[in-house]
Backbone:
């Protein structure tokens, strides 16, 4: 039976991750059509509950819903009753009372999507909660990597930068290792989490030693909005030690993939030349985000069994949700 919510990569496991990636192949084909739209979620209503700013995630979710023919409800914190003191719970109950099948939520506090899932009956999709999780970003990153390499078994991926404040790093490590990759996180000690217990990865503070060994290098920006103290002497010194500079670009393998979740701070964690290098998959990640989020929405909300929409894309391979697609 398919999951009701997508709250964390840890809820999926390898089988479900691979099933979402197979389903994404079908929706990528839909996105390439002259009219990229199918009636797979016609009659479904999806609401966006974003308490943090977003460009890529919100727009790709909205695009995904529209391509699936779902109806959408847009919630803007800046113009809502939140500014009048309305609680998160009352906001969610209000949206639920209007009749929604799913809520895509982003919040600055870790654990909020889990709490909302206890309050209402709709499916909840975590679009980022504090430093904690960002599962759809991890899924689109996995899809981007599998497009390049096929299987991730035995591949070595370096995640470089502000690990401490990154929900992307936490979700990516779980997803990449679930698919058989080896992950090394690279950062100064001040940008590492206070504890790495349970983190299934290697640790390095020497980017130059790691780069020649990797199949993909994943750059993270300095999340200054989450930092309460100065964690590096200066951005210039950070770039000198941990940025993918023009000089370091020359030490990457010919087939090494360069990745970044965006927004990029060009000249800090990644140079202009590296961002635009042919090995860069940054724009490909954005494009894949739409197809992956179509797959997630369809997986959670698509009708089961004989009620399934006949025009919905169907993956060629059967996975753990055989019988519902």
Residues:
């Amino acid at each position: 039976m398919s999951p009701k919510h997508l709250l964390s990569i840890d809820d999926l496991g390898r089988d479900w991750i691979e099933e979402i990636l197979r389903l994404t192949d079908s929706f990528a084909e839909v996105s390439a059509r002259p009219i990229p739209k199918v009636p797979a979620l016609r009659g479904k209503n999806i609401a966006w509950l974003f308490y943090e700013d977003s460009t890529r995630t919100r727009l790709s979710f909205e695009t995904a819903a529209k391509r699936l023919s779902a109806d959408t409800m847009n919630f803007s914190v800046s113009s809502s009753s939140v500014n009048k003191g309305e609680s998160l719970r009352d906001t969610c109950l209000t949206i639920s009372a209007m009749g929604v099948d799913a809520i895509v939520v982003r919040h600055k506090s870790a654990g909020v999507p889990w709490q909302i899932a206890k309050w209402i009956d709709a499916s909840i999709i975590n679009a980022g909660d504090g430093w904690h999780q960002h599962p759809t970003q991890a899924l689109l990153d996995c899809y981007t990597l599998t497009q390049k390499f096929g299987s991730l078994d035995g591949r070595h991926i370096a995640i470089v930068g502000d690990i401490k404040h990154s929900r992307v790093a936490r979700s990516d490590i779980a997803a990449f290792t679930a698919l058989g990759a080896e992950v090394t996180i690279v950062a100064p000690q001040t940008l590492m989490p206070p504890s790495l217990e349970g983190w299934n990865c290697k640790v390095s503070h020497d980017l130059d030693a790691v780069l020649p060994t990797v199949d993909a290098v994943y750059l993270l920006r300095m999340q200054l909005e989450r930092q309460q103290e100065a964690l590096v002497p200066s951005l210039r010194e950070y770039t000198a030690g941990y940025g993918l500079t023009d000089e370091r670009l020359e030490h990457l393998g010919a087939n090494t993939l360069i990745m970044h979740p965006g927004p990029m701070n060009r000249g800090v964690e990644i140079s202009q030349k590296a961002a635009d290098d042919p090995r860069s998959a940054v724009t490909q990640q954005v494009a894949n985000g739409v197809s992956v989020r179509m797959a997630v929405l369809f997986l959670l909300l698509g009708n089961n069994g004989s009620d399934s929409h006949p025009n919905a894309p169907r993956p060629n391979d059967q996975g753990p949700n055989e019988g519902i697609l």
